[in-house]
Amino acid sequence: MSRSQKVTIWHNPACGTSRNVLAAIRAKGIEPEVVLYLKTPPGRADIARAVKAAGLTVRGAMRDKGGPFEELGLGAPGVSDDALLDAMAAHPVLINRPFVFTGRGVRLCRPADVLGEIFP
Fold first, then answer.
1. What does the pLDDT look like over 32-42, one tens digit per residue?
2. How many angstroms separate the Cα of 80 from the Cα of each of 8, 55, 70, 96?
3. In degrees, to the nearest 5, what angle opens at C-alpha 118 toward C-alphas 9 and 30?
4. Where in the sequence numbering do the catalytic residues fall?
5. Is the CATH code 3.40.30.10 the one for domain 8-117?
6. In degrees, to the nearest 5, what angle opens at C-alpha 51 toward C-alphas 50 and 55?
7. Which of 42, 77, 109, 113 is a plausible cystine mate for 46, CB 3.0–4.6 Å?
8. 32/8 Cα distance (integer angstroms)
9. Measured between alpha carbons, how far apart are the two ends of the chain, in Å?
10. Which of 92, 113, 102 is nearest to 17 (CA)?
11. Its pTM surpasses 0.85
């Protein structure tokens, strides 16, 4: 990957995995675009594109620990992908992290070593 190639990370600085992935990108000499997605949330369409590009299901891209996930009953059978995407757009804390975008693809880098699939 050339140093000029754009790399973007949806980052949560409170998350150890997200911090480790960001550090790994920087260790390669790349300064990524860091999107603090809790402060500047992606839109619903952006979330849907990221999920699809990463080869995930919507549920697979969702953080299901506590908070709005339980409060909104999102773990119930039959909750549609559309409802999950709406919830992720309204409550960005529901987006699992970190998503990393490169010219080689998009991945939810959890665990952190998934970064190697799109980042040499």
1. 999 999 999 99
2. 28, 18, 16, 18
3. 55
4. 15
5. yes
6. 115
7. 42
8. 5
9. 7
10. 113
11. yes
